[in-house]
Write a structure and sequence with these properties.
alpha/beta, Rossmann fold, 6-stranded parallel β-sheet, 14 strands
Length: 435
Amino acid sequence: MKISVIGTGYVGLVTGVCLADLGNEVICVDIDKEKIKKLKKGKPTIYEPGLEELLIKNIKEQRISFTDSLEYGIKNSEIIFIAVGTPQSKTGEADMSAVWDVAKHIGKYINGYKIVINKSTVPVGSGDKVAEIIKKNMKEKYDFDVVSNPEFLREGSAISDFMTPDRIVIGSDNHMPAKIIKRLYEPLNAPIIITDIKSAEIIKYASNAFLATKISFINEIANLCETVGANVQDVAYGMGLDKRIGPKFLNAGIGFGGSCFPKDTIALVSTGKKFGYDFKIVKATIDINKLQRKRFINSIKKYYKKKLKNRKFALWGASFKPNTDDMRDAPSIDIINSLLKEQTTINLYDPVAIAEAKKIFKNKINYFNNAYDALKKCDALIVVTDWNEFKQVNMQKVKSMLKAPVIFDGRNIYDLNYMQELGFTYISVGRKSIL
């Protein structure tokens, strides 16, 4: 099929490359000329395992091309994916300006029947609005259909999530476009749900809000475990064996971040408010997530009896999760900013997110290309992101490089008994502190 994907951010680029790999003819469109230059050379503008190899392969096979011309992309495709950003606005709602702008251009340049697909995460009712804008901006009358096809890509495993999805959701109020989009995805051999547009739009927000709620729930249990001296990992394991609950998203820690859960939960609350409904559980999920970061920061302050001035801390992990360089709403930002207010020195190491961290903190902190080098003469190590390379480090070496054998672990990646045997002061989340 002839496809254009408008927007080469995280969702757009992964979608475009994967659809090309399935044998389609894909045009990726972005108004950022620098992005397009890099992509034409086979250089991804985001970090995602396996993406560069797949990009280069499909450029060589001439199944994917890149342009900064919306007109070219719209006129030379049968299916148009809208995959632009919908960041959180000042009011908490999704900022839909980029989506509306693309719809306006589709109306302006449409030259035949098109299926327009909302791939961006959009609030309920957006499909109707996109159709309205396209019609309003048409110079000549052409038939088109708007379809909702939400993405469920996890950063760090997006290629496999696209190629082996749990489900594919197609929201359409007409049978014919739904049938065409179903055919597009049939090679993936995944369950395909066909529903109306509004239901499809809600499925995405409901899924993310529920997963975020699981995280905040286990973090509340972790807070109780800390208070009474229980172990949240044992509690989560016992819960997760119940098939009705399952083990996923029951890892206690310093809460969720990234480009989806924070903004999508807030957007869902805003949507409810708009239609006169109060999302009490989702609001509590958001509040608990904010609390987790504060509790972790307070555990550091409590250990040092609020005397943090002139202390030096090694911080491992800047991205909001492993296998990505994304720092959007990452817990590391709040933790670093809080420690900087206490006039501390921060030595930061992250396997791939240092460039992103420099954009945020500039020269306010120190940056390292090696985990061990960041430890030199530091008062303590703070673990923020659970990268695999942090899980099997030489703990004797860590101990020898720190001024004092103190670790604050926001992701519970080390065994309590092992840390006690090695003589560490070890403070984690929802588990007994080793002091």
